[in-house]
Amino acid sequence: MNKKLKHWLIGILGLLVVLGGLLFGAGMYFYNVAVVPSQKSFISNKPVSKKSPLYPGEQWYKNDAKKILWKQQSVGGNLTLDANFLPAAHKTNKTVIVAHGFMGNKEKMAPYAYMFHKMGYNVLTPDTRGQGKSEGKYIGYGWPDRLDYIKWMHKVIDYTGKNSKLFMFGVSMGGATTMMVSGEKVPTQLKGYIEDCGYTSITDELNYQAQQLYHLPAFPRWPLIPILSGITHVRAGYSMYDGSALKQVRKNHLPMMFIHGSNDTFVPTKMVYPLYRATRGPKELLIVKGAKHADAYQTNPKLYNQKVEQFINKYMN
Questions:
Q1: Which of 317, 307, 247, 306 is nearest to 283 (CA)?
Q2: Residue 77, CA atoms < 13 Å, CB-side half-sphere
Q3: 209 pLDDT above the threshold of 80
Q4: I need a surface site. Which of 125, 154, 255, 311 has the fewest CB within 10 A?
């Protein structure tokens, strides 16, 4: 090998090492932003206004609701998970399990818990791994969490009896979690699902947010997303490429209602259509005009409550 070629190869190798180091460093940065539980600058934590339709439910959950604290261990791990079980005003074996969004918690789902409680159902509001009061050092985007929610279902059945009837509901990441559950073997007592503004897959949402928040072009989104997924696999125990709500709903035969805001730019509205087409069970689609991300209930509470109640009553009874 002549000296000139040798220098070229050393230079290229050095450049690749530097580039690899930069990409790995970027992957670690995005792991901390996307997967490590912490305050996120892109998530609003403004208090709910007294004029908001969400306010009565938030106050009820905080001050008046009877809450029974439940705990269980995560599936395939030793994390202690936290939930509140809220019994209906009149004894019933019908329960709605409510899944919260990214960096949310059970308290954030108070308005929805209030809505279902007023319909006459028991409500279970868990904290997902790494969020609220549940243990964990990572956010699972619904994929490892789907198995925890099925375990919560069995806990509800043990509590309310083998003739229990269940429904699962979730918003944003909770909506994606709901859809991810739908592709698994679930208890026969589960009668259906309602998802609000969930994403098609973890990697679809991360790719979209990399464009929206960081204006990253196709390169370096690839190979950054695979690097991020690899880091997540090592540190959190799951691959982001496995977490596909779209693949899961293709295996679903239970009733499912899909809700999305027409002005959603966080989980874009267009994601709901392939999801709706993919499910194999009875289905319904509600697009709430003018609603932004996770804002459909607040935008049109009367329509939202009416459509949700009609759907859940149809299949829960």
A1: 307
A2: 18
A3: yes
A4: 154
